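Exercise: predict the structure of this protein bound to iron/sulfur cluster.
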Amino acid sequence: MRTLLIYPASISDYSNKPFYIPAIALLSGIIRNAGHPTKFLQFLTSDFEARFSGAIHEFNPDIIMISINVEQVKNAKEILSFLNMNYPEIKVLIGGPQSTIAPEEFLREFKNIYAVVIGFCESIINDLLYSISIKEYYLPINNVWYNSKEGTLKNNIIYSEFEDKPWLPDLEVFREQIEMIGEKEFAKTICFVGSRGCPFTCTYCFESGYAKVFNSKNRITKYKKVDNLILEILHLRKQLNFEYVNFYDNIFGLNKVWLREFMEKYTKHIGLPYMCFNHFDCLDDEKINLLKESNCDTMVLGLESGSESLRKSILNRHITNSRIREVGSKIRQAGIKLITFNMIGLPYETEDDIIQTIKLNHDLKAYPWIYIYQPYKYTTLFDTCNEQGLLYYEETEELFKIRNPTISEDKVKLYFSLFRELVKTPDAVSLVKIRTNECHQKRQEKIVGNDILPVS
Ligand code: B12
Ligand code: SF4
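Solution:
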């Protein structure tokens, strides 16, 4: 089963450089371990046809696997159309965050897709390869939906546990990419996950959509055995001399018992400095100490908005600003660098809300990552914006955007471009702030279910 693995270009590619992709490393590791050859193509631009045809002729794959996230949909769909036209005989399998949230959209649009894997793939890939090798194409495998002549064949969807054994990532599959940018550069993006899932359902995040896909009751955070995580890191370290580790769990070390064991074993066997994502509401003194002692040097935390009421009513994030300040100062005292995720241009956001976000970042002495809110289909906030008539489709960018009744798009763009400078010198806000009546529209609130949502 010769398998060609594809990572399509992203529409907002920021780096234009190849990087380590954990899902590809994992897939290739599983497939090679079962004795099948793999090859990987990462497209950095949408201009893929010549390279793709060349790779197909040279490698002659039986199966093509495409990993898709939301920013890659446009390019993934171009690739799927191209395959449909030119190589309809090759089995195409898709997976990743976007095919998990929208499996039917892909299966409906592209009849050449053989199957979609919904969620995590570790325990599935070998069964699928086996079913293809014995030409029993529609075996009932959890989390796999097939395209068949009779329509979509759906199997059960479960939020699977990590398996007891380690699945070792394959680095060899990135050989071309490593040669392109050099080992030192490639080593900077090495990353791992120790858990998956999230106990929260922030409205703008895909976790709010996954709660529907997986049935929220079963969506409890799952943890990898610490020993297996350590084995994975050691396995890659033998092949590549990376000096820094990135942990990509949604909330790293959410479970304190797991974090204690991690601290002990990571310190003993690895010890490299690392960054992780975390959550202001999930950190206490002991956890911050455990993170520091295990050599965490940077934490990335979602602040999103400095306006407590907006955070609560629009984003379903219930933490207070005083708690954020308290936790932020403990992180700083521990000597850990603090990076925050921030969004502006949120539905019903006012200029004053943006200024609160700037000031809170300043007080936290955080380095802010700033984004303009992008409503993503299949999230709860997208549905709310849609119901309230705020959405429009921007043809040129092929994206949904919001028409905000409380602030203009130009003003949001202005704050976006000045955001980092204003966090450094928030007094300069008064120079930027041009008072118009648009920013004083008062937000009213009503309660819908458990969430408090705004009325226009
Ligand atoms: C790290 C990260 C980033 C990093 C990326 C760094 C990098 N170089 O890769 C940064 C911060 C830059 C980033 C940016 C963005 N991200 Co991000 N990010 C993540 C995060 C935290 C980890 C991703 C990861 O590597 N996971 C570990 C791997 C092993 O898991 P995985 O990729 O999901 O793969 C598993 C399965 O999906 C499946 N699988 C994957 N591919 C395939 C393919 C096949 C064929 C099969 C069978 C199975 C399969 O198998 C794997 C193992 O079980 C996730 C959330 C999370 N914890 O997963 C969000 C996440 C992927 N990001 C998300 C988003 C929305 C974004 C942004 C669009 C945000 C923004 N507005 O700018 C950008 C887009 C960037 C881009 N250019 O594409 C969403 C994507 C949702 C979606 N529907 O696609 C996620 C899920 C967060 C969320 N809950 O909303 N992100
Ligand atoms: S805490 Fe983070 S990962 Fe969890 S739902 Fe909120 S934004 Fe998503």
